[in-house]
Amino acid sequence: MKKHYSIIKGKYDNQSMVIDCQKLSGYRLVPKNNIEYDGIMVNQLVIINQSFIEKVLKKKIKRKLDLYLKLIIDTLSEDDSSDVGVSLRNALNDLSRYRDIVEFKYQKYLDEKYVSLLLQKIALLEHELKQKLIYLIDKPVMEEEEKSVGGRRR
User: Fold this and answer.
1) Which of 3, 66, 72, 149 has the most CB atoms in a 10 Å sphere around its CB?
2) From residue 31, how far is each of 42, 45, 46, 53, 57 by CA, in Å?
3) Residue 101 and residue 115: Cα distance in Å, rounded?
4) What is the overall mean pLDDT for the chain?
């Protein structure tokens, strides 16, 4: 038995309608926009349809991975400064936190094959961030070694 809720404007002008979302099982969303308007205020949204949950999560995950990929590309193209190391560490911490979210929150809504592919992509991004961070740490040491070698070369 499917549950359908419809709210008709005009019938409930001065009343508030409350739907108990705790009894519904599905993926829960909380709107983050704070734009005031005269329409219906939505505090929480529960998506019940499995195919729609997958579409929403895949779109959300793709957006987040593109954001991390853009961050890596920007840090690789920037000149090396102390600020880049801090931003790389923050990105690495955010990426590991995001991996945990994918493993524990999204895994029950998505296919195993898609989740394993996603975790491989996240691991690749983490590897690239770690390599860049190691390069930034070792670069001053390598520059000092080159200066100390000096002398004549053949």
Assistant:
1) 72
2) 7, 8, 11, 16, 15
3) 11
4) 79
Question: What is the C-alpha separation between 92 and 86, in angstroms, rounded?
Answer: 10
Mean pLDDT of 51-78: 87
DSSP per residue, the chain = --------TTTTSS------GGGS-SEEE--------SS---S-EEE--HHHHHHHHHHHHHHHHHHHHHHHHHHHHSPP-HHHHHHHHHHHHHHHHHHHHIIIIITTTS-HHHHHHHHHHHHHHHHHHHHHHHHHHHHHHHHHHHHHH-S---
How many Å apart are CA 30 and CA 46, to the nearest integer?
9
pLDDT for position 127: 92
Q: Which residue has the tokens 């005009």?
A: 10
Query: How far is it, in rounded angstroms, from Cα 30 to Cα 16?
Result: 18
* CA dist., res. 132 & res. 73, Å (int): 11
Q: Which residue has the higher pLDDT, 6 or 43?
A: 43
- Phi, psi (deg, nearest 5) at residue 115: -65, -40
Residue 4: the pLDDT is 58
Mean pLDDT confidence for 109-116:
92
